[in-house]
TrEMBL record:
<protein>
    <submittedName>
        <fullName>Hydrolase</fullName>
    </submittedName>
</protein>
<dbReference type="GO" id="GO:0016787">
    <property type="term" value="F:hydrolase activity"/>
</dbReference>
<dbReference type="InterPro" id="IPR023214">
    <property type="entry name" value="HAD_sf"/>
</dbReference>
<dbReference type="InterPro" id="IPR051400">
    <property type="entry name" value="HAD-like_hydrolase"/>
</dbReference>
<keyword id="KW-0460">Magnesium</keyword>
<dbReference type="InterPro" id="IPR006439">
    <property type="entry name" value="HAD-SF_hydro_IA"/>
</dbReference>
<dbReference type="InterPro" id="IPR036412">
    <property type="entry name" value="HAD-like_sf"/>
</dbReference>
<dbReference type="Pfam" id="PF00702">
    <property type="entry name" value="Hydrolase"/>
</dbReference>
<dbReference type="GO" id="GO:0044281">
    <property type="term" value="P:small molecule metabolic process"/>
</dbReference>
<keyword id="KW-0378">Hydrolase</keyword>
Length: 238
């Protein structure tokens, strides 16, 4: 089984919202954006645009972070100044990290029956640190990220790299992610069992995701993947 991290296992949206709220307050910037909510909406829109550029190979992982800061502040900043601003935000963001309540029970329920890996469109440094901080890094045989792979979801190559890391063919691997297109459609078109965890986020509006199994909580996952014995070879990890 291969997992997405952000907004699948880890409550990224809440951490980003609360971390940015605390950061803008500390920087004295909240008043310049009308309301905290307006500032947070703008930050998320900029993040999505810059992340799309990174996924398309137009900018590096570090570059998309710097551009998020420059566009958000609407000022020209050196790389060092943009990095420093982003790192101050990271401090507030990490202070509110948490797993979703259904994450550990699902991992526990599947620990003995399935092998596990992570596939993320982030970077290995970021996600390794996150998984260790959250206390779940040892649950996964492999952690693969777009910044190091050189290919990102929804490209088939990213999903196939995760299958290769598990030494399993795609039709024997399930992928669980929160984005109906990047995760759901991407995994399905790469030949994996695609599971979309619909937590009611911004991507869910108007999505049908008929190509993926749709669940609203990870509590539904063990029963779903156990209905077909092709998925998840017995664990030999640890």
């Amino acid at each position: 089984m291969v997992w997405d991290v952000d907004d699948t296992l880890f409550d990224y949206t809440s951490a980003d919202r609360e971390g940015m709220r605390a950061h803008l307050a500390a920087e004295g910037l909240l008043a310049g954006y009308g309301t905290p909510e307006q500032a947070l909406v703008r930050w998320r829109e900029i993040t999505d645009r810059q992340w799309a550029r990174f996924s398309a190979g137009e900018v590096s992982f570090e570059g998309q972070r710097r551009e998020r800061v420059r566009v958000f502040l609407d000022v020209e900043l050196s790389d060092a100044a943009a990095d420093a601003w982003f790192q101050r935000y990271i401090g507030h963001y990490e202070a509110v990290w948490s797993l979703f309540p259904d994450a550990l029970p699902a991992l526990d329920a599947l620990a003995a029956s399935h092998r596990h890996a992570v596939l993320s469109n982030s970077s290995l440094t970021v996600q390794e640190h996150k998984l260790r901080t959250l206390g779940v890094r040892d649950r996964f045989e492999s952690v693969l990220c777009a910044a190091e792979l050189g290919v990102s979801k929804p490209e088939a190559g990213a999903f196939l790299a995760a299958c290769e890391a598990l030494r399993l063919p795609p039709h024997e691997v399930a992928y669980v992610g929160d984005h109906p297109e990047i995760d759901g459609r991407g995994a399905a078109e790469a030949g994996l069992l695609s599971v979309w965890i619909d937590r009611g986020g911004p991507y869910a509006q108007g999505a049908d995701a008929v190509f993926a199994h749709r669940i609203s909580t990870l509590a539904e996952l063990p029963a779903l993947v156990r209905t077909d014995t092709r998925f998840g070879a017995p664990s030999t990890f640890g």
